[in-house]
Amino acid sequence: MGTPQAPRTAVIVGGSVAGLFAGNMLHRAGWDVAIAERVPDDLASRGAGIARHVEMEPIMAAAGVREAGPLGIQVDGRIAVDRHGAELGRFEFPQYLTSWSYVYNPLKAAFPAERYHGGQELVAIGRDGDRPVARFADGLEIAADLIVGADGFRSRVRQLLAPTVVPRYAGYVAWRGLVPETALPAAFRAGGFGQYCFCFPPGGQFIGYPVAGADDSVAPGARRYNFLWYRHVPAERLADLLTDASGHVHDYSIPPPLIRPDLVEGLRRDAARDLPKPLAEAVALAQHPMLQPIYDVESERIAFDGVALIGDAAFVARPHAGIGVLKAGEDAEALARSLARGGSVADALARFEAERLPEGKAAVALGRRLGAFIERGHDSPQSDPALGLTTEFILRVSARPPSHSPDLLVPA
Ligand SMILES: Cc1cc2nc3c(=O)[nH]c(=O)nc-3n(C[C@H](O)[C@H](O)[C@H](O)COP(=O)(O)OP(=O)(O)OC[C@H]3O[C@@H](n4cnc5c(N)ncnc54)[C@H](O)[C@@H]3O)c2cc1C
Q1: Is a pLDDT exceeding 70 seen at residue 32?
Q2: pLDDT at 149
Q3: Does the structure show a pLDDT above 70 at 1?
Q4: How confident is the model at residue 72 (pLDDT cuts 50, 70, 90)?
Q5: Any residues with CB less than 8 A from the CB of 394 and at least 6 apart, and which?
Q6: Is the CB of 36 under 6 A from ligand 1?
Q7: Of 199, 251, 272, 389, which sits most exposed with the smallest number of CB within 10 A?
């Protein structure tokens, strides 16, 4: 019998969902894993509600998470309404709506705390022979068999290895808000609150649905109403939305407390004009709406010499398909599976890239198609019939993985 081999080593850059999926899977496969996360403390919730896809269950299990509690709030399907609340269409599709922390918290709990290093910012990647070396802001250097870039849409790892791939502004923003169930008018609580609702105000799309409460409770009375209002904003006007009261223009996104009050007042005024009354009331009741400019990130390579990109670092699809978290999990699963086949890290990364590059591109293409009418500032999804964005198509395809709808990438 030979001497046992030392475990292979991985440094994972980014300790959000993609990093935790990969960290848990590689740790369970016997790798010596360290996660380095720039933020020192627990990550704040990334906003609000996300769709929980059935494909998520085996991936959570592979990451070592055993689901115990409820998966979120179940809705029966989707409904579209016009400006006056009259029904435009309906699609039966039972689905759980959940929150980002429902995924993040158990993944974090499953990962060994002593291997998770908060407050570690990667600044460079060097080489030590044939191994990549992660260099951190505090001077720490770690050589490893594998570095995983799971550092989000403005990825430093991607910037270092593929500097020409940058987030591209999609021509619109999402205003997001959350309202405690108990703050909503009684009539809405008894009816519309429980629906996954779509509406198409001029130049945009509004969706609203119930999500867990701030403490992750899904008990009636403790839940919240989550809305997303996608609005066309030409690139030359985006800087104004990202300018705070002191005149500072923020890059890419702006922290919610710094959003100028005049913009929030304008949002509420427009809601009263363009949305059915209950939805406009929800917008008015949201205490601190968030503003999220929408970007596409499309990589041409996700495997480099000993380095892989996963999650939003690799591809960012517009949120219409609601697959960012699932895609992060699938990327991590494909990477761990390929490495488990044995052989060299280089061969494993080549297989991983061959499998996940087309998936990432398909997700970006789907998001682009679903958002094309907002990007162009059209009054309605049907303004340009060539886009094929019928109400039926939007209700059927939104917030579902592309694999559910074989026709969806072919413009009608
Ligand atoms: C409006 C909107 C709605 C969305 N809705 C949905 C939905 O319904 N369903 C869904 O699945 N997804 C949704 N998403 C997408 C989802 O939030 C992301 O896809 C997901 O969070 C990506 O995870 P990630 O781990 O790849 O990146 P992130 O969550 O961005 O994490 C990257 C991490 O890397 C860290 N980091 C960055 N740079 C460094 C560095 N140099 N060194 C160390 N650490 C670093 C960051 O601090 C961060 O913690 C939505 C997104 C938006 C904007």
Answers
A1: yes
A2: 98
A3: no
A4: confident
A5: 80, 198, 370, 381
A6: yes
A7: 251
Do 285 and 300 fall within a single domain? no
Residues 173, 240, single domain; the answer is yes
- CATH number at 92 reads 3.30.9.60
State pLDDT tens for residues 219-246: 899 999 999 999 999 999 999 999 999 9
pLDDT for 412 equals 39
Cα torsion through 330, 332, 338, 343, rounded to 10: 170
CA distance 321 to 342: 34
Local confidence band at 4 (pLDDT 50, 70, 90 cut-offs): low
- Residue 10 has which token pair? 């991985």
Name the β-bridge partners of 49: 99
Query: 399 in a domain, yes or no?
Result: no
Return the percentage of the chain with pLDDT > 90, whole number. 80
Query: Which of 45, 122, 312 for mutating ligand 1's site (highest number of atoms within 8 Å of CB)?
Result: 312
- In sequence order, the 6+-apart residues with CB closer than 8 A to the CB of 236 are none
Q: Residue 185 is part of which domain span?
A: 73-98+169-294
Q: Is residue 392 part of a domain?
A: no
Torsion of CA 334, 33, 316, 106, to 10 degrees: 90
β-pair partners for 127: 132
- Best probe residue, ligand 1, of 11, 21, 25, 38 (max atoms within 8 Å of C-beta): 38
Atom of ligand 1 nearest to the CA of 323: 11
Does 403 fall in a domain?
no
The DSSP annotation for 241-283 comes to HTB-TTSPBPSS---GGGS-HHHHHHHHHHHHHHS-HHHHHHH
Residues 115 and 43 grouped into a single domain: yes
The pTM is what? 0.94
Show the tokens assigned to 165: 């791939």
In sequence order, what E strands does 158-218 have?
A: 168-180, 196-199, 204-211
Q: CA 143 → CA 31, 131, 403, 411, distances in Å?
A: 14, 6, 38, 46
Q: Could you give the number of structural domains in the chain?
A: 2
